[in-house]
Write a structure and sequence with these properties.
Number of helices: 11
Structural class: alpha+beta
Order of helices and strands: HEEHHHEHEEEHHEHEEHEEEEHHEE
Radius of gyration: 27 Å
Helix content: 40-55%
Number of strands: 15
Shape: elongated
Amino acid sequence: MIDLTATLWAALPIPAVIIDGEDRIADVNPAGELFLNASSRSLKGNPVWDKIFVDAPLEEAFARVRSGRAPLFVNAVDVGTGSRKPESCDVQIAPLAEQGDHVLVLLESRALAGKLHRALTSKSAAKSAIGMAEMLAHEIKNPLAGITGAAQLISMSVTGEDLELTDLIVAETRRIVKLLDQVEEFGNVRPPAVKPANIHDILDRARKSAAVGFAAHMRIEDDYDPSLPLTMADPDQLQQVFLNLLKNAAEAGQQGGTIRLRSFYEPGLRVRRSDGTRGAVPLHVEISDDGPGIKPEIAAHIFDPFVSGRENGTGLGLALVSKIIADHDGWIAVESVPGRTVFRISLPVAPSRPAKSTDR
């Protein structure tokens, strides 16, 4: 290492490379090894441009950093290697204090930033739709009750095709009322009643309900990390989230398909809380299925209200899921390709309880 402790170097959550005065790789941190798909030992001593391909003239940037002794930022450039396709990154270049010709290069993928932006946009869209949802539910449900009552009265004095028409009116008005019930649920602005909760207990309740109901035709597997700490959550609302995602997975899957539940701890991701501060969300739950995947044309807007990949879908289920997770100061994302769709929920850790005093 060059003037950095091994602990700090290994803990950096983004790829980092140290370049010597001859533009050769002097060191790579573990995140950089993963990004470049090569070990530090195999990379050291190689010309940097033989191992990293950047769609920008960084030789000039290196020279400016070395001469000016000041950091330089290059935003939104494609960075790739011989073994992976280019990925849009923000590149930060900084001089090393005691090594005049060495520079530190940080490669920060823009993929995560884009997902966070879409998540925040979805949250804003969900809030914007709440007022409309409440107005529609209130204004439409009352006259629908009158239409249903009138159709039922008429049905008592007609027969044949006329009776079929009145039955159709009653069935359709009830269907619309059911939709409005979902709209009202989406418009519920009650904050979650959060308390320390065990994610696995909530997951298991949702799993059992799904296994005997809408997901009875699927195989449900789990891979839990039993050491996960508690999170701060409203158990009822979080169970609703898991049920909605399990139902989506069951509807996407085929007879005998598989739904996988996975939980794990992974630090590094931080999101903006409702109070404007930033907080870590290291507790992760993934719900995946082996269905056909999300249609590419709606993938980027899947959490927006009234966007649905199903023919008769309302587009409110995932919008409600996104709203609940946002209210929990968490984050939700999705990755989908044919044969594998993964919804990942990230939540904060419950604060530690103060130790009880033993003084008497």
